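Page 47, continued from p. 46.
Same chain as before, 201 aa.
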Amino acid sequence: MKQIALPLVAGSAESPPRIIVGNANAGVVDALSDPSKWPFRTAILFGPVRSGKSALARWFEATAAGQAIDNADRMDEDALFHRWNRAQENGQPLLLVSSAADENWHVDLPDLKSRLGAALHLTIGAPDDAMLAQLIALHAQMRGLVLDDSAAEYLVPRCERSHIAVEKLVSTIDRLSLERKQPPTMAIWRAALAESSRSGV
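Result:
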């Protein structure tokens, strides 16, 4: 398990966002690290909401001298086909980030459809227990929330296996701790899990 720190944007005072690399995305990170192996130097990235697709795209642009298009599946198809052709002419790797969690991307333009069909398809999956624990720690750190070492041990078996569920769970723990003016102990963890369960997260 490791983290990727994204480069700072020039003039930015914010800390670089971090990406946990684990079972759900290790293969994606490896593929993004070597675009020379991509068919036609093109890859498409799918994955659940809040799973780090956009952050990985920015990391790819900063480290692989390639270009990335976020929400490419929502882009005008003629314009996207033009971008694909331009990337081919420039010999530049092109990463297309889909807003969808899976490979359900309907394309009407025949030329674009054939080229995207030949591209490397990458998908971020669901995090396992080890990655969930790392995600809990990361989101807590980002909020300045101090969690006991036993927090992950208690929360991981009980929380939904998704990136966004973990993010919302830690956010709820932080909010409840502030509202109750109490440290985030097991009583608050339980309340946060119960609230998450009621909200369907």
